[in-house]
Amino acid sequence: MRRPLYGWLAADAISLTGTRLSMLALPWFVLTTTGDPTRTGLVALAEMTPLVVLKVLGGPIIDRIGPRRVSITCDLASTVVVALVPLLHALHALSLGVLLLLVAVGGALRGPGDAAKYALTPALVEHAGVPLERATGLASMVERTAGMVGAALAGVLIGLVGAPAAIAVDAASFGVCAAVFAWATVGLPRIEPEASEATYLGQLRAGWDFLRSDRILVGIAVMVTLTNFIDQAYSSVLMPVWGRAYHGAAVVGALFAVFAGASAVGSAAAAHLATRLPRYVTYLVAFLLCGAPRFVVMAWPVSLVAVVAVFVVGGLASGFINPVLGAVEMERIPRQLMGRVSSLMTACCWALIPFGGLLGGGLVSGFGLTATMLVCGAAYLVVTMLPAVDPTWREIDRRPQPSPSLTA
């Protein structure tokens, strides 16, 4: 009964580990082969733009032909596309134009591929007979852990065999992910598309109309979009600047690892506890602990022990956020619209990420690190605490009645 769910988690772990590996290996490859930071940024933009766009445009296709088929097809195609990067490099046939094209195609495949895996979650949860919070908590734990493992693996592989070989490992991870996912979900009941003669654009509009009609889903999308924007400024600019001023790059890397590890532990706890906790209060407390305190503690030179303590507490608290928000999202979206609406929400949440570094760099250059940390921390607090004054958000505590097969 639970093989599809656990197989999905295993496939996701493999995919996320490879993605994290590639996030470090690809920029390193471009930087070491060209020596040009501008080209490195151009490659990142070439990947992210089609990824976000295809997340939006791929939703109707996911709902029409099924998330399982879309996920497997995209992963298999990604195996080939990503493998061409080290292969063409070895053959001395990888120009910048070809690399940009391959990276763009890879991003275009990853967008709907990732969205399809996510869209299949409700069916997997129902088939396994587990609460949504448990599944989303396990998925969040897998995501955090895979990020840590992928980053560490990237460092080892790049140091031992070079960036091209590390990219080849990422290509192989797509193939393994597709195989595991296909094996685990074979025989899973297919989600039947809605009986409609609507055109592609009509289906896309139906997803958008549903999303904007639900205040809770709109609120989640706006909140996550803005926090991702600030978090990107924090991780790509503010943390490195802070590390250079006080403790060095090694400490910055260690703090990221501490936060991710604590978040994985928090997600594991959420998988078992979230069904017994009030969602609304859990959301508010978790964001109070994991949001603004990170910025405030780094606004001035303080003891490194205090910084680590804030990161441990914040990481543990952050592990409870995605299980709560993910469960709310999946409960409120009709199964036939899951691909479209969840893809639209994810694309919105990612839309401002490419500009986060610009925000952080501009603020630090204009006002200094201390003022920027405090301004960003205050903005983070306001964005995440708005639900405290909006009574609509209390609806997230209304869980649907579980079927007899569900167990806590």
How is this structure best summarized?
The chain is mainly α and 408 residues long. It has 18 helices and no strands.
What report would you give on this structure?
This protein has 408 residues and is mainly α. It folds into two domains: 188 residues, Up-down Bundle (Growth Hormone, Chain: A), CATH 1.20.1250.20; 183 residues, Up-down Bundle (Growth Hormone, Chain: A), CATH 1.20.1250. 81% of the residues lie in helices and 0% in strands. Helix 3 packs across helix 4, helix 7 packs antiparallel against helix 11 and helix 10 packs antiparallel against helix 11. The C terminus is likely disordered.
List the main descriptive attributes of the protein structure presented here.
408 residues; mainly alpha; Growth Hormone, Chain: A; 18 helices; 81% helix; disordered C terminus
Q: What sequence of helices (H) and strands (E) makes up the elements?
A: HHHHHHHHHHHHHHHHHH
CA gyration radius, whole angstroms: 21 Å
CATH topology value of the largest domain: Growth Hormone, Chain: A
Structural class: mainly alpha
List the quaternary state of the chains. Answer: single chain
Helix content: over 70%
Largest sheet data: none
Could you say how many structural domains there are in total?
2
User: First CA to last CA: what distance?
Assistant: 16 Å
The share of residues in extended strands comes to: under 5%
CATH class of the largest domain: Mainly Alpha
Q: Which CATH architecture of the largest domain is right?
A: Up-down Bundle
Number of separate strands = 0
- How many H/I helical runs? 18
Mean pLDDT: 83
